[in-house]
Specification:
CATH topology: Severin
CATH class: Alpha Beta
Strand content: 25-35%
Subcellular location: Nucleus matrix
InterPro entries: ADF-H, ADF-H/Gelsolin-like_dom_sf, ADF/Cofilin
GO molecular function: actin binding
CATH superfamily: Severin
CATH architecture: 3-Layer(aba) Sandwich
Order of helices and strands: EHEEHEEEEHEH
GO biological process, one term: actin filament depolymerization
Domain ADF-H: 5-148
Helix content: 25-40%
Radius of gyration: 15 Å
Number of domains: 1
Structural class: alpha/beta
Length: 151
């Protein structure tokens, strides 16, 4: 359980293991439930089109304590493909992305920031971890550059 009191639903680990072992799932988006008690799977996809994935993050919504909907955070796991430096061939890295936009309301930002480690601990086999706070942080080239350098 996270510092925030948010727990990780078993379906999160199951979806992650399917991505990790099956290699048919390309990405998973997780969200904190509307009652702010549990991290759940929002969506999984086999679609390798990164722009579809990025748009899902950019358009994420969360409700605040009063039930008002606004810009929201998300967690995601993306199986990033890239060319290794020096012509060493194709590589893939399972990358954890914590998407907490700077302009999201305070409560969702706080909850996503304090609940991240609980989800990361539950997902065994993450190769890279990216904290993203604005649209530039989740540009495909930016993600590939950071993942290929091992960050």
């Amino acid at each position: 359980m996270a510092q925030s009191g948010v727990s990780v639903a078993p379906e999160c680990v199951q979806a992650f293991n399917e991505l990790k072992l099956g290699k048919s799932t390309k990405w998973i988006i997780f969200k904190i439930s509307d009652d702010w008690k549990e991290i759940v799977v929002e969506e999984t996809s086999k679609d390798a089109d990164y722009s579809v994935f990025r748009e899902k993050l950019l358009n994420a919504k969360s409700k605040n304590k009063r039930g008002e909907e606004g810009m929201g955070g998300r967690y995601a796991v993306y199986d990033v493909d890239y060319e290794a430096e020096g012509g060493a061939g194709k590589r893939t890295k399972i990358t954890f992305i914590s998407w907490v936009p700077d302009d999201a309301p305070q409560y969702p930002r706080m909850m996503y920031s304090t609940s991240k480690e609980a989800l990361k601990r539950a997902l065994n086999g993450i190769a890279a971890d990216i904290q993203a706070n604005d649209a530039d942080d989740i540009e495909h080239d930016s993600i590939v550059q950071r993942v290929s350098k091992g960050r």
